[in-house]
Amino acid sequence: xxxxxxxxxxxxxxxxxxxxxxxxxxxxxxxxxxxxxxxxxxxxxxxxxxxxxxxxxxxxxxxxxxxxxxxxxxxxxxxxxxxxxxxxxxxxxxxxxxxxxxxxxxxxxxxxxxxxxxxxxxxxxxxxxxxxxxxxxxxxxxxxxxxxxxxxxxxxxxxxxxxxxxxxxxxxxxxxxxxxxxxxxxxx
Length: 188
Hints:
Layout: E1 6-14, E2 23-32, E3 37-46, E4 70-77, E5 83-88, E6 94-101, E7 104-107, E8 116-122, E9 125-133, E10 144-154, E11 160-164, E12 182-185
Antiparallel strand pairs: 1-2, 1-11, 2-3, 3-9, 4-5, 4-10, 5-6, 6-7, 8-9, 10-11, 10-12
């Protein structure tokens, strides 16, 4: 069940040099509850049998999820260089990272962050929703958060396509500050 709260909608764009024959589009809905629980819902439409979608597994933290089909959320307090990265696999596997600045950081060793991932799959639609409890990371009342929403999609032949709100620069780079393109202001 999706919480009643403020909702934000976005559509991801494919990085032009990573074509995909089988993905029609990816939309993301974000809900923020007052207790800083965020629900991220990624909806991929396309020819799912031609994509490599990881099968459901026991949820656990795993690194390097971005090497296969994976949905990602980057969260940064506006005006700060530090940010968080969350990787969410349709398998139920997940990862969380904290960075002091551009690509300067590493994994968050806290299984309490366990995002609740739910996947719904139909012939031409995959929906992944995940609840991330940002209040467990740090209190941020009144802050404006900048979100980077993105995905890596693997086709059956192993080719990857990269999707994001914004693609600044010469190669796919979800960590680039300009890819954090959705602002959300938290209550004070």
